[in-house]
Amino acid sequence: MIINALIVEDxxxxxxxxxxxxxxYPIINLLGEAENVDKGIELIxxxxxxxxxxxxxxxxxxxxxxxxxxxxxxxxxxxxxFDEYAIKSFEYNALDYLxxxxxxxxxxxxxxxxxxxxxxxxxxxxxQHKLTDNSQIFIKDGEQCWLVKIADISLFEIVxxxxxxxxxxxxxxxYKSLNQVEEKLPINTFFRCNRQQIINTNHIKNVVPWFSGKxxxxxxxxEEVEISRRQSQSxxxxxxx
Length: 241
Prior knowledge:
This protein has helices at about 10-25, 35-45, 65-70, 85-90, 105-120, 180-185, 230-240, and strands at about 5-10, 30-35, 50-55, 75-80, 95-100, 135-140, 145-150, 155-160, 160-165, 175, 190, 195-200, 205-210, 215-220, 225. By secondary structure, the protein is an alpha/beta fold. It has two domains: about 5-125, Response regulator (Rossmann fold), CATH 3.40.50; about 150-240, CATH 2.40.50.1020. α1 (about 10-25) links the parallel β1 (about 5-10) and β2. The longest helix has 18 residues, at about 105-120. It is elongated, with a radius of gyration of 20 Å. The termini are far apart.
């Protein structure tokens, strides 16, 4: 197993320290480094890394802004000298959080998490630039941010020109249209119920016959979704109902 990684960090000293740590782990293939967000995004889009060592506090744009600009987010390990970000970063579902200066022990622990996550993704099919159940997306709504695994999302719903995303007990807005979202979703997992909503079929609790040949879905999170009459037949065929 080889882990292709990038460093996005404004401090040359911190980049060099990370590279020294990485040298002891042949499993990590360092694809490159960037000193700011804009260059980091260029590198990420061109190299498609498995892992990102990402500084949070950088001039002009911070690490969270970088993640916001990505369609698909690789595994992320935040690196920073400011412990105020520690709790927040785990709320964003970062793979790990390393305080500078980074010790060998903490780096080894982070690497163990990386290899475990990659084992889970080893058989994932990433063809045609589609997201998969193991892919994750970055969502920023106001002051809150999340890195969300696609499999954990139960429902996408139109709100004006944007899309509300339902996962766990959260319902943030994603600043993309539902049609843009649908183009990236794995078709074996997600189903367009009507013009307004797309559901994750793995999160369905119950299917109820509804008026005029329609179906109503009761989701695991308590939400109820009505399948349009046009889509109900497709849904029945898909689930062999």
